[in-house]
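Hi Y.,

Following your request, here is the sequence exactly as I used it, all 351 residues.
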Amino acid sequence: MKKNDLILYAAILIFGIAAPYILPTFKVQLSILCILIVLAMTWNIQGGEMGYNTFGNILFYGLGMYLCASVQVGMFFPLAEWTESGGEKTFEHTTIQFFEGMGVGLLVAAIVPMIIAGLIGYAILGLRGHYFAICTLGLGIAAGEIAGGIEIIGAGQGFTTPPFPKDIVDPEARGEFFYFLSFILLIATFAFIRWIYPSRFRLVLNAIRDNEDKAEAMGIQTMKYKIVGWMVSAFFCGFAGGIMGGLVGYIDSTDVAFDGREMGVFMVLMAILGGKGTLWGPVIGATLFHLFKEGFWTLFLGWQYVALGVLIVVIVIYFPEGLMGWLREKYPERFGEVIDEEDRKASVELK
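Below is the corresponding structure, written out as tokens. Let me know if you'd prefer a different format.
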């Protein structure tokens, strides 16, 4: 790793640790920003690196929400009684129960969507182009409707997640807990993607994106790599959903968990805005998008969707390759990709 990269990563890590103390009134928004970056990075594995533009990641995000909350409650109380109207007021988690349930719930929220991604991957990853995109869009919509009819998880009335323990009297503790949880997930996701970035795995995904038929003709097992890529995305998406469910405190099947109209589209927009198929593009895109969105939601409430529509038009017309793509074209000597020894060796292995 280059010295400049180490300095950059150290600076980001220091800022991330200090952020909730520097900006104490923005802990929730900082937590949401970390989640959005994770979602943009995981979507980029399919849409950017592999060329499969999916709207189906919202399925894993929503599953993560429900799974984490259900495990957190079901480990200690009857889940059906909890989700009845006012049920969350009948039972109260102790501090140990809350954190134990959250820990186990997050693991389940990450692992189960990953398994589901592997199972359904065989069925739908044979589709390509807009057929694949429409199919994944249908998965998210269907999941929301199905969840809205399951009584044990609240059905149409929603699911109130366990409140933060009352034994912890520090009013800042809840915000700090969810912020650092989401920040740790962000660091773990980025580190993993940075680790696979110079690997043969990424080169195979790029080969699938550029010409899948030729990749298959070269003897590459494209289906295996497509499924593994989707399973990686599902793992981190489910984990992010589990954290977000606890952060917002309430899960609705169509407006929170499987909200394809907003969060499902946001994943795509953030990656495209920053530059899909790049390491830093989703990070930059998610950050700018969150600042833009919150600014308009706060200052111009009622016009926020108009502004969002204008942003989409600007991205499509002026930044079709994202900000990183524009910077690479404008300043190739500073932002262009450099083939280092690791990349060269991986390329030779692929051939």
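The longest helix spans residues 95-124.

Thanks again,
Q.
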